[in-house]
Amino acid sequence: MLKATLRSFLAHKGRLLLSALAVILSVAFVAGSLIFSDTVSRTFDRLFASTAADVTVTPKETLDETVPSGQTLTLPASLADRLARVQGVAAARAEVDVEGLTVADEDRKSVGPTTGAPTIGTAWNPTERSPVELTSGRAPEGDAQVLIDADTTDSKDVRIGDRLTVIGQEGSFPVEVVGIVTFTTTNPGAALVFFDPATAQTKLLGDPKAATGISVDAAEGVSDTELKRRVADALGSDAGTYELRTAEEQAESDVEQLGGFLDIIKYVMLGFAGVAVLVGVFLIVNTFSMLIAQRTRELGLLRALGADRRQVRRSVLTEAMLLGLVGSTVGLAAGIGLAVGLIELMGLMGMNIKATEMVIGWVTPVTAYVVGLGVTFVAAYLPARRAAGVSPMAALADAEIAEIGRPLRLRAVVGSVVGAAGAAALVGCAVSSRTSSAASLLGLGVLLTLVATVIAGPLLVRPVIRVLGGAFPALFGSVGRMSQRNALRNPRRTGATAAALMVGLALVGGMSVASASMTQSFDEQIDKTLGADFVVQNSNFVPFPREITDKIRDTEGVGLVVRSQFTTIAVRLPDGDRVKTTAAGYEPELDEVANITYAQGDSAAALADGRLAMDKDFAEDHGVRVGNALPVEFQGGRRAELTVGALTDQESAEGFGAQGGIYFGLGTLQKYAPGGQDASVYVNAASGTNADDLRANLEETLDPYPQVQVRDIADYKQLVHDQIAVLLYLVYALLGLAIIIAVLGVVNTLALSVVERTREIGLLRAIGLARRQLRRMIRLESVVIAVFGAVLGLALGLVWGVCTQQVLALQGMTALAIPWGTIVAVVIGSAVVGIVAALLPALRASRMNVLAAIAHE
Amino acid sequence: MSTAAAEHAPSPASADGIAARARGLTKAYGSGETTVLALDAVDVDIARGRFTAVMGPSGSGKSTLMHCLAGLDNVSAGQVWLGDTEITGLKERELTRLRRDRIGFMFQSFNLIPTLNAAENITLPMDIAGKKPDEKWLDQVIDTLGLRDRLKHRPSQLSGGQQQRVACARALASRPELIFADEPTGNLDSRAGLEVLGFLREAVDQLGQTVVMVTHDPGAAAHSDLVLFLGDGRIVDEMARPTAEAVLERMRLFTGGTPQTPGFDVIRSQFDGGPATLEER
């Protein structure tokens, strides 16, 4: 039996190859993402572990920031001297590390990374643990000399002797590049600028006695943990205001900070793997179903010769496992390639990881084989059962008729029950008023409706394709008629083939509706709330130095400037909840640049000293009333009691990480969280100045500051669009992958149909069907199958998208937008997919020898 | 469809009387020492308006002759004309159009497209050509074959005899110059077979068509005007106004005259090595 299985596997290797591709793609994405993230975290573990001091003392960050405030927490540099005297300490150094610096060249362009990674200003304290070494030039001396890392000098063409401008929180100043340092370890992607320590303190921190951390080296024989304990003892009662970390802890914390970014890559990759698996399952199910339909006689013969059901089933499953094994192995290799590609890509983005240091943990191959074998096993199980059900009589009967003839009643029943449950869940999600329950209902509804559509797909083949291909006979004559009817011939097969395309397009349809709705909602909100002529801010929402705001104020034609900053707070609410969130601080003239609707109170009451405002729904949920005094904890540890001065009634009060829509006066913010930088500045023109002139003036003013841009309302919308577009690009990439696999499925089905209809094709050719017409017939069948999948998928996706929008509406995204352009493009695209998929099968059919085809058995 | 080249060729085909003609028609398979001659310099004229049967034992080349005359297969040497058109040397595309417009086909089995109903099958060659069928002629053909009440049926809803009648109607529908029938009764019971043969006879006598039928059944050959006997790739004999007995008698010569009880079943088992497959080409 095994021999028969192996023979059969090899005999069908062409067809199995297509299924294997689906397995390979899924496994490659899974393995690639695992290898990539293992390699990256190992690399950074090693980097941070080798560069961290034995013990690092930093100011305690009491609240994790989700939105950067621009605040740099400092500690007294004198602490280093104090700690140097502790027993067991070999040396203690005051360190200065300032992120969010901007360094501009003579063309006023930033020399920092273009990837959003920071430019870090650091005091030049070379030790054996420095991640860099001076490779040319000399160490910086005085307040106008810097070193720059070689990766930056290479990519931005900076040379020793170049004059740069450093734009820091405490103002900008000119410097000269006197040396270049080279990373001895992996460069995580940031640009590094080194100053002499005194300059770093005065120019970057604005305080010659401040530092951002103390590095403590242990004397011989003192362990890091022991050293940490001694340092903590030495700090005594002050220890609570500092964060003490051993080298190991410091490395962990650093890796964690990078982790967010790496996690995104990992999840994107796993998303791809998921789509590949999902679509691949359909392809494999279909392939095996077809192989079995094709081999019904052969299987019947095996049964007639005495093979029992179990043996037949096992034979098919063994074949599937062989496929899974081959697919997983090749997929694993492809995954390594993919990881190398990703690492190279990271290299282009400035993160230089060596592909030779690739880490392949035992988890990777195990996961790869589990995924590969699991997918094929699950997908082949049903076909294998069906194969086992083949009666010995089938050896004599006509196989195809039996397969087509099986009623679809069970599918109809199961499909409608699951579909009804899914529809109920979606309706439930649409009417639900709580985000959390609505989201889970949405997930359930999406899953159930997807399953229902897959099950009921073959039932929809007849009605939908009748309509889709309705014009074919009129347009393409008998060729069109035959292709339409060929697509209807085996609804099960057509349904399963289209399902692969359907799944991908449903996801895309849903996500494009959701993102179009988000874009539209943001647009409407911006129109409604933004009243300023111009907004000056950073495209990554990174805060910028005060100096820029001052320059804006002094610009000719500027009437009013309103500053805003963000800070992280934790607020204790009357119902006992402690909510950590991002809050905003505005200058009192807020009403001049924004239109805020208040349920109670007004901007004056909200922005007064010691007051705050929040969203009325949030307030209601937590039992907050106007006049309540709420204990608020600020970054850096200061606490205050702020009185609720106003409640807002905004459609979208809650943005990213900003729960409750809390804001207060800028004065209040600066009092409790000093040292923050402006996140955005709203500018109105002085009376008599037209907007174009003001814009020109502002652009001139901001020319030396590459980190900020002037935007009017239209530009601001564009910025938001661009950010949402990133999500869309991801969707399109997923679409691409889903389509590739779906195309394989269509090719597979067509190829088999062509083989099955060999005699028919021979007859058609004999009575005068030209090759071109034959190709067109197969192409049209392919197109109608692909468009059927697209229509089903998009219809499902639209429903999902509308329901998703209903959930988003609870978060204030009230607008519903359906991207008809995208939808039409996808339908047209699917027709193209059909044409592409038909290329090979059509060629094969048209190359058939007419005589051999007629004689084909 | 006649090409300029064909018109100026030294065509021995006269304008009237001859529907198809072959001169020195040779078809070889394989090469070198393993060469098999399926047709060995055959000269043949198919008379217009006549019913010609081609007989011969398995491997005698009868199907190959039909395929070469119909432009389904290319020849190794020699020339073939359909009417005034020399078809040897035509390109694949021209051959396809020739088959579509000027030749009708019937096969032993699998004659119809399962997805099309009877009416659609009948008009298929014209539909493919994008031509309008001649409605009067079509009605005549459909009525002659008694298919009027079967036009909306799919092949799977028709009996074997009915299917072959539809195939016959299709072959006649475009009023081709020549109809080739390859074992048209091979898959039918004797009653249905007789019916189909009767229709072919009628097509010749009443509709003025030209039919060439390949068969191994002396009873079927007896319906023709002329039987051509093929043996080892050559035309070895011909018989006008044949009867089943005479044809059977002639066929016996191929087996060396072993006395045997006459009967179709015996003949079948003797000459028909299996379905019309490679060995017959």
TrEMBL record, chain A:
It holds the Pfam family FtsX. The chain crosses the membrane at residues 267-293, 320-342, 362-384, 412-433, 439-461, 495-518, 726-755, 780-800, 820-840. The keyword Magnesium does not apply. Residues 272-392, 734-850 form the ABC3 transporter permease C-terminal domain. It is a multi-pass membrane protein. One of its GO terms (cellular component) is plasma membrane. Residues 108-137 are annotated as: Disordered. Residues 17-233, 494-700 form the MacB-like periplasmic core domain. GO terms for molecular function: transmembrane transporter activity. It is found in: Cell membrane. Residues 112-123 have a biased composition (Low complexity). The keyword Hydrolase does not apply. Keywords: Cell membrane, Membrane, Transmembrane, Transmembrane helix. It comes from the Bacteria. Belongs to the ABC-4 integral membrane protein family. This is ABC transporter permease. It comes from Streptomyces regalis. The lineage of its organism: Bacteria, Bacillati, Actinomycetota, Actinomycetes, Kitasatosporales.
UniProtKB/TrEMBL annotation, chain B:
The keyword ATP-binding applies. It comes from the Bacteria. Residues 20-257 form the ABC transporter domain. The keyword Nucleus does not apply. InterPro entries: AAA+_ATPase, ABC_transporter-like_ATP-bd, ABC_transpr_LolD-like, MacB-like_ATP-bd, P-loop_NTPase. Keywords: ATP-binding, Nucleotide-binding, Transport. GO terms for molecular function: ATP binding; ATP hydrolysis activity; transmembrane transporter activity. Pfam families: ABC_tran (PF00005). GO terms for cellular component: membrane protein complex; plasma membrane. PROSITE patterns: ABC_TRANSPORTER_2. This is ABC transporter.
